[in-house]
């Protein structure tokens, strides 16, 4: 199983519309990728290492696929459409990571 | 459900012993927290946004708990013992995040 994660760093002056993200952007990801995306898990950052500290990431999503090939075939063709939607919910430049789930 | 994530940024000159992490450190986390930790998911970074680019994080773990209270009761008392084990597998200073799973 592989996981494509998108992290939104908690930067000074950043904005993030969690409602739009959960009800519009992630459903759009699901719709475009179809069954190839096995699961999507959305994180809402609560805090960091020290009690009361800000979370390093305001939000993140983790999208699971059976293989890199399944990701490339289902997600990559839509990446520009998805990138175009980002300004609708945040001004943060996301950090992207592909990982293998051990 | 809440998720305590530990990220290991992919820094120049960093080392990370994935075998030790998977077979020693995470099992120690499981043992110390007991049933309170519902699940632990380990990521091995494969790549970043651009094809062939390095992953932002060498590795990460996501530990799931029913509540912040369950985390605080089961994990926090052992955090120094767990922190003491970190130099056994990496020289990276980890980034910690507490998140709500939506």
UniProtKB/TrEMBL annotation, chains A, B:
GO molecular function terms attached to this record: oxidoreductase activity
Record-linked Gene3D superfamilies: 3.30.70.100
Signal peptide segment: none
Alphabetized SUPFAM superfamilies for the sequence: Dimeric alpha+beta barrel
One Pfam family cited in the UniProt record for this chain: EthD
Domain of life the protein comes from: Bacteria
Ranges of residues in domain EthD: 18-90
InterPro entries referenced in this protein's UniProt entry, alphabetically: Dimeric_a/b-barrel (IPR011008), EthD_dom (IPR009799)
Protein name: EthD family reductase
